């Protein structure tokens, strides 16, 4: 049984793909942490998770793990072929990586809250670059989709249409929920983690990831 589980999760992947998945998720978490500390906004999914976890007083790692377990049940039911080692690592680790590195970076590099706009923008763009590098390595490892990422892929598989539109739907849902939390004063505007960084994530992640893919492809695959 252990052998069957190993085959299911790793799907014959070599050491380079496993390392790319592990290191990629670590770097991805650092990028998410940087965006959080830039004060300019995170990607929609992370912004939603941060807003809710802070409102209910739960660590991001614990909250995100619970949400990912629920989403994983959907993935197991409808998209089992998209589950792998990378799915498990991403769903378990990212929130805890952010929890760990937030105080570490705050106490060393510092955060950009209240800093001049040019400094916040620089902080944000560097964090986007780090995030893109991590996503590139994680995706090129090709060892399974994170439960949230599967949602738009699963909708595309089962209802046809273009992936781009379903991704906009899931991200739009996250943004809408955060905006409603602000509207009903559950979180403050400054603490909602939506902002220019959210828009830049939508605009820049694709091109940045493609750039890093060219650099990473030769050693990962």
Q: Using DSSP, what is the number of strands? A: 0
Structural class: mainly alpha
Number of helices: 9
Distance between the termini: 28 Å
Explain how this protein is built.
- This protein is mainly α and about 220 residues long.
- It is built from 9 helices and no strands.
- Helix 4 (about 60-80) runs parallel beside helix 7 (about 145-160).
Give a topology summary:
Elements: H1 2-10, H2 15-38, H3 44-56, H4 60-78, H5 85-108, H6 117-141, H7 147-159, H8 163-183, H9 196-220
Helix pairs in contact: 2-5, 2-6, 3-8, 4-5, 4-7, 6-9, 7-8
Characteristic key phrases:
221 residues, mainly alpha, globular
Task: State the gist of this model.
Helix content is about 80%, strand content about 0%.
